[in-house]
Write a structure and sequence with these properties.
- The protein has 18 helices and three strands.
- It is an all-alpha fold.
- It has two domains: about 120 residues, no CATH class; about 210 residues, hpI Integrase, Chain A (Orthogonal Bundle), CATH 1.10.443.
- The protein has a three-stranded antiparallel sheet with strand order 1-2-3, with no helix packed on it.
- Helix 7 packs across helix 14.
- It starts with 12 loop residues before the first helix and ends with a helix.
Length: about 425
């Protein structure tokens, strides 16, 4: 895009080029960050035009002008007003307001580099002043599956699989209900395998499943699973393919699931979508492409109790479950397992909590270096995210020092505890 210092350039013309620069993939169209930034830039533009904000807000365009928002309309006071809007009228949490303003500030810096603006207004302290302070939320405050929660959830999915599989196996081969019972057993096996992978591998959910915003993340396939070596190949956050470990507890659930599913090819997703609507549309489309008439397609579907079973028989490969789909599965399983969650942000065992829970296990058991390798993170980042563990250990060390130098406080605490009991 050519450089321009023209104050009359519409602000919106820069969005496409900026978003492409920060996007992922060959054409820069993918990535969560890109999508979040695009949403916030659109919101800012609508606010600047007077289409969002308080009832008395008319925007930043002069009253006598009938045009789009231009770079000449931007100033330090505009960004200060928007920071105030984020902090008050939008009702955002402290960290969310900070994040949204950071999106805008990053774009503003890019505009300076590209010659659209002479000054990085958003970065000035007076513009940022209305933003709320950080709420002090520490990494250790974020959800991490506790050993008790992990045990409750894994026990629940094991029991569900055992029940549905036993019912399927005890059904006669020719019984009309056998296919339906096989479907329920497959679904329970999938759920069990998904929970075990999330709970014990610490692989990011976006590395396992399909992300509609990023075409490179099409979900784990069976050809990328090696239970003999105990590894899977995933597309990492660092934008490259890499291997991740499969601990021993994960191997059997994956093997049993594959034996029951019997995928027609290794290119099938490990965790396919079970959505009836999605599978129904896929089956109809694929069979039509193979030359079947509508009546023939209807007959084929009537012969199968579930479209998934027809897809398996005809090797109609479905898409992987999405990351949103996995969250819905975990919500359903958390509720059916009657797991009590005390988390202000999530009422269920969220996928990132499984990863953080495994991080807790590794840091406590083997230290930061081993945990960093397993989590595919830098050791410095792992130390920051699990700093509460080190603080606890330092507290224990401090207690030992206190006992050695001045045991009186510890003895007094012990006496008070005995009296309380």
């Amino acid at each position: 895009m050519p450089r321009s210092n023209s104050t009359e350039t519409p602000v919106e013309v820069s969005f496409k080029h900026y978003l492409r620069d920060i996007g992922k993939g060959r054409d820069g169209e993918g990535g969560h960050y890109r999508r979040n930034v695009e949403r916030e830039l659109t919101h800012f533009l609508e606010w600047a035009a007077g289409d969002r904000g308080p009832d008395n807000w008319a925007g930043i365009i002069p009253d006598d002008a009938d045009r789009d928002v231009q770079f000449g309309d931007l100033s330090e006071s505009v960004f200060r007003d928007y920071a105030r809007y984020l902090a008050t009228d939008r009702g955002l949490k402290q960290n969310t307001a900070q994040t949204y303003y950071a999106y805008l500030s990053s774009w503003t810096g890019w505009c300076v580099t590209e010659g659209h603006l002479d000054v990085h207004y958003a970065k000035r302290s007076t513009a940022r002043d209305p933003l709320p302070d950080d709420d002090g939320r520490r990494p250790g405050d974020q959800q991490a599956w506790s050993p008790e929660h992990r045990h409750q959830l894994t026990t629940h999915v094991v029991q569900r699989f055992d029940d549905t599989y036993d019912e399927y196996q005890s059904t006669d081969e020719d019984a009309p209900e056998r296919p339906t019972r096989r479907y329920h057993a497959i679904k329970a096996a999938r759920d069990r395998a998904l929970v075990y992978v999330i709970a014990y591998t610490a692989v990011r959910i976006g590395e396992l499943l399909r992300d509609p915003s990023d075409p490179r993340r099409r979900g784990l396939r069976w050809e990328e699973v090696n239970t003999d070596d105990g590894s899977i190949t995933v597309y990492r956050k660092k934008q490259q393919w890499d291997t991740a470990s499969l601990p021993k507890p994960v191997i059997q659930p994956l093997q049993a699931y594959r034996d029951l599913l019997k995928p027609p090819s290794d290119r099938w997703p490990v965790f396919p979508s079970f959505s009836p609507r999605t599978l129904g549309e896929l089956v109809r489309e694929q069979l039509a492409d193979r030359g079947l008439t509508d009546d023939e397609i209807a007959d084929h579907r009537d012969d199968h109790s579930r479209d998934l079973l027809l897809a398996l028989e005809e090797d109609i490969r479905p898409d992987s479950m999405t990351t949103k789909g996995a969250r819905n599965v975990l919500k359903r399983l958390t509720e059916s397992a009657n797991i009590d969650i005390s988390d202000p942000n999530h009422e269920y065992l969220a996928p990132h909590g499984g990863r953080r829970g495994m991080g807790e296990v590794l840091v406590r058991s083997f230290g930061y270096t081993v945990a960093a390798r397993y989590l595919d993170n830098s050791e410095n980042m792992v130390r920051q995210r699990y700093s509460h563990i080190e603080a606890g250990k330092l507290g224990d060390k401090a207690t030992e020092g206190i006992v050695e130098v001045d045991p009186a406080p510890i003895s007094q605490e012990s006496r008070l505890e005995e009296e309380r009991l």
